[in-house]
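Teaching note: in complex prediction, the entire set of molecules is handled at once rather than each chain in isolation. The prompt given to students was simply: 'Predict the structure of this complex.' The entities are:
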Amino acid sequence: MTLSELPRNIPAVVVGVQDVSAGDPIAVRLRELGFVAGEPVRITAHGPAGREPLLVQIGYTRFALRRAEAARVSVKLAEAQA
Amino acid sequence: MSESAALRVALVGNPNCGKTALFNRLTGSRQKVANYAGVTVERKEGRFAAPSGRHIQVLDLPGAYSLAATSPDEAVTRDVCLGQFEGEARPDLLVCVVDATNLRLHLRFVLELQRLGLPMVLTLNMCDAAERRGIRIDVAKLQAGLGIPVVQTVAVRRNGAESLVQQLDSQMPLLPAPLPEGADLHAEVSRLLLSAVSVPERTARVDDAIDRVVLHPVFGLALLAVLMFMIFQAVFSWAAPLMDGIDVGAAWLGTAVGDAMPEGLLKSLIVDGIIAGLGGVIIFLPQIIILFLFILLLEESGYLPRAAFLLDRLMVGAGLTGRSFIPLLSSFACAIPGIMAARTIQDPRDRLATILVAPLMTCSARLPVYALLIAAFIPQQSVGVFNLQGLVLFALYAAGILSALLVAYVMKWTRRDHSEHSLLLELPSYRLPNPADIAIGLWERASIFLKRVGTIILALTIMLWFLSTFPAPPAGATGAAIDYSLAGQIGKWMQPLFDPIGFNWQICIALIPGLAAREVAVGALATVYALSSTEDDPSGSLIPIIADQWTLATALSLLAWYVYAPQCLATLATIRREGGGWRTVAIAAGYLFGLAYLASLITYQVTLALTAG
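The expected output is the structure of the full assembly:
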């Protein structure tokens, strides 16, 4: 599933970032910001209107992403941890 | 010591790494703020002497996430680091500044910078915050892993940059060994972190707790509204005594200089032209300073990106971005700082849209005009619990905001480039603002504003004085001198154009000096109606005259005109500088004029039809 579909406060792991066009600058930037395979990721809040933007915790940083941006990031649920 | 002998270092790092605080700590007040040639990216440079007496020249480069630039700011950082920026010498040494609590993100950029072939020093900034959060960094291991000297700093603490100064004062570090081409920088960062850093928790608990309230869909928006309301109150009420003081001061200076000079053109130029004209603009300095005090406090504390987060969706709907919020907020004091604040918007399309609609926010220079017309034409009566005069004033503000949203919306549809706009906004940790950094920031804003007053606004003021003074009235003339001047002739020549919207020739003339600053139109009207503009309160004696001579339709039409009209040359000059050229100015002036004319036409004709019946 994609990051835009991930429910709030469910820990997940990044699988990868898809380019929507050749050399997609937004995808390039997302990878630079740390959206790379294996990174733990979590949605911690939504904006007040239309559940957008998403507040995403990646690494030690929080980023606000619009849905279209988050849709480029594919994630899988993190294995249950104690 | 000559310029060339100083060691040139550049501070490089991600946004929010505390780079500017470190820059302030190193250079104190010995800094110069200007723009990089040809782009509206702020260039900050300063210098200091190290204990050995060595002079060090420091350049504070714009924050960047990567050398693959996605904004004008990042492009400047990339080009300066590569030594490809025209007219900018390549730095001798890069000081890479990283937030010690955010190494996962910031170290990647450091590894990227290692490929540049410049000597580097890594500065672990905000070490106090890292310590409080139990983050342990093995500096020796990190230094060995990266192959460059690593120092620890706390930029907001006195002597917090000592270790960096000592490092810069010692031998030049060796060139770092870059990672091979195509190496996975993220994997390398992970390896470094694993060996040298231990982080008990990924985020600060206090940030999570504050964000739960601040970003809450209901409480967060309520808090934002309360904050904005308080800022508005402060901007208008705290500034009032200071503005009165400047007003009195300018009047006193005008009288004092006037008394000391012989009658004549030179006296008129200095007293009526320069002192009165510049006084009318400098009067906004208190409001600008108070507004920027709040903006800087919100920015330093980390709140501003949260406000952008809350408002992004609403602004996107109108064709703007969450980041447009601050520039538009600033424009309620004055469009000039508002347009300058649009620099923080990365997407050029969003930035242009924000700059173009900023003049629609009701700036405080329109208030004197609104106050005059409302006092003269709107009866002092209550409508339910409200006051009719207050309601009209509110409607004028609301008309500006709604029009801005509408204009931005239309622009969104007329743009040819429909590629996606990105947000990708980092929400940094909350921090207590450091008073010294706030003071330096305020000083910069104030001096930028004053510099502008001293250059472009001064030139325009003198030009307008010429227009309204020459040619002099013929001997035995009975009307006001301005009638006979070029401005007067232009006003009369303009009148047919403005006839359909109900403006008489007196209003047309007043619009011309009003170009310098909107509220000057009030004084100009007083002059045209042969009142002495040196009277204490020209608008006071003007109210009965215009109430008697103008129709309600004309008054409402002029109010509508002022919601839109682009008659502020200083704003247009700022748009040219910030928006990149005359084309943008032409678009802004053209659409504002068109809207003003249309709104006035509708207002005038509808009111005429209603009042005739």
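Point out the following to students. The longest helix of chain B spans residues 435-469. The longest strand of chain B covers residues 42-49.
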